[in-house]
Structures are given as C-alpha cells and as structure tokens.
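We modelled each protein-ligand pair independently. The example shown here corresponds to the guanosine-5'-diphosphate entry; the chain sequence is given first, followed by the ligand as SMILES.
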Amino acid sequence: MGPPDVSDTNPLALDIVAGNRRALARAITLVESTRADHRRDAVALLDQLAQISDRQALRIGLSGTPGVGKSTFTESFGMQLIAKGLKVAVLAVDPSSTRSGGSILGDKTRMERLSREAGAFIRPSPSQTALGGVARRSREAVALCEAAGFDIVLIETVGVGQSETMVADMADLFVLLLAPAGGDELQGIKRGIMEIADLILVNKADGDLKPAATRTCADYAGALRLLRRRAYDPDDFPKARVVSALTEFGLAEAWQEMTTLADWRRKNGHWEKRRAQQAQFWFHQELRDGFLTRLTADADATETIATLEAEVLRGTLSPAAAAERAIAAVMQK
Ligand SMILES: Nc1nc2c(ncn2[C@@H]2O[C@H](COP(=O)(O)OP(=O)(O)O)[C@@H](O)[C@H]2O)c(=O)[nH]1
Ligand SMILES: [Mg+2]
C-alpha cells in the first residue's frame, strides 16, 4: 500500500497528523461542539484521520477520588515518560465538571513542568458539556491525540458515577490510584471498579504514610486475588503496587508493569480484540444516540410519542406496547 492520496484531505487533518498542536487543540474544540454543522465537520475529520493514519497510542485510563494525587502523579509520571522520549497527551474526563472550567485547569500548577514540555499536550475537560456528550467528546479527543502521534494518551477521571467505566471503555489499560487507608479498613471502593482495574497504585508511599500505604497495598493485592480471573490477563494481573507521585518512588516499576501487560496483551491478541470490541460498543452507542436525536427532532414522531405516552400515563396502554407502536409508526416513514 503506497502513501494515501491526500489531495482531497482537509488541511486540518494533515496538520494534526503533522503534529501541529494548535491544529489538535482546534480539532478537540470542534469535537466538543454540539452545533450540528460542527458535528458534521467533526465526523468528517475523524473519518479522514482514520483513513490517513493508523497510529496507535497506549491509552491509559487513570482514576481516583479527588485528593488521591492524580495530578501530581500525571506530572511526575508524565515527566518520566517524556524523559524516555515518549510523547504524552493528558485528557481530563469529568462528567461533574460544570463549574470551574474543568478539573485539570485548576491543577495546572501541579503540572507545571509537564505543561512546559514540547512533547506533552494537556487538555482540561470543558466546563459546560451535556452529560451524554462527555463520553463521545473524550473518545474522539483520544482518537485525535492518537492521530497526532502521541505515544501515550493518559485519560484522567475523578471517581464519580459511571466515569470510570466510561474511561475504561476507551482505554487499553485502566489504572486505579488509591490513598493509604487509615487502620485496617479498605476504602469504600466498589467491587465493579476493582473488576475493571488492571493496576492498582497506592499513592503517597512516602514519609509517615509509607507503612500505611504498604499495608493498604497488601490488602488490595489480596482482594484482587479473590476476583475471577480474566481471559485477557497474564497470570499475575491485575496487580497492586505502592508509589509516591511526590518522591517518584515506584513510578518506573509502575511503568514497567504497564508495558509488560500491554505487550502481553498485544502478543496474545487481546489488544486488537479489545479495541475492536470498544469500537463495536461505541458504534452501537452512536446508533442509539443518533436515532434518539433524529427522533426528537422529528415533529410527527414527537407527536406520536406524546400521544402514546399519555395513554401509558392513563394506564390504557402498557409501556412495552406503546414503545412497539411508536417504533412501528416511526419506521413506516
Ligand atoms: N505525601 C504525598 N502527598 C501527595 C502525593 N501525591 C499527591 N500528594 C498531595 O495530595 C494532594 C492532592 O494531590 P492532587 O495531585 O491534586 O490530587 P488529585 O485531586 O487526585 O488530582 C496535594 O496536596 C498533593 O501534594 C504523594 O505521593 N505523597
Ligand atoms: Mg487533580
């Protein structure tokens, strides 16, 4: 296969692939927009990029409660990757961020070194996004960073609601950052989150907190062993380790674990399979969203649905029968 024919290609796409940061930033702004014409441009752009670039980054999802050290970790871990000559993009996914302009922005001070690096790109989550749009915007921003040639895309999210699952659904690896627990209680971490973690990092293993971090890590390692084995893991994964984002203790080892796991998955076909399943999942998500958007934009359909809804409210029609009729009415058009 020769070089792709780029004569009809959007210059923005070419600029992104050439590694132009401002083009990347503009493209992310475009995919964040909810305007219909922007949406069309964004879809066309993403499609073109998929045609001209097959670059893959290692996508790392990173989650943890506020204060656990995500920003500090991202800074020191990111700097270590930069020192290896890797290009690092950091994206924030914050479904709750309707306030201050996103989670990373407020933390910019904690990523001062990283944000000055030529090989790094940091994008805070936008302040006002419709909740349903968060997943799409993030996923598309990841794809844009990938096309722009980043080796690592770090997708950071606060541990609220469904955001961890959402981030795991767009990542190759999912890392859970935890704090040392006081006493012997494990933090109220949900089983579902444990089940999607590939690597648990107990942060703040420094100074007075080190013994607690080590204990907590052993507890989590024990808890992980109780989980059902997953087909896409080698024997000793998922793992728990201690790190200190502050002193950088354990960060090189954490990176080693991530590459070991990623390489194993690549070699055993799980990487491609996971990416394919993710693409399939997002396709269905887009289908659902697309149908719903079109439905609510259609006056006749909206009226039909309102009429049926009134019957459901009165109890004269069952919800299932009403849905059947609504679908039949809409499909006939
Ligand atoms: N002792 C210690 N403190 C840390 C470490 N990492 C982060 N912190 C501190 O924990 C607080 C929250 O860190 P931050 O990175 O903003 O957490 P985030 O809310 O998860 O992004 C800050 O005061 C950090 O200095 C660490 O490894 N050790
Ligand atoms: Mg933070």
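Confidence is low (pLDDT under 50) at residues 99-103.
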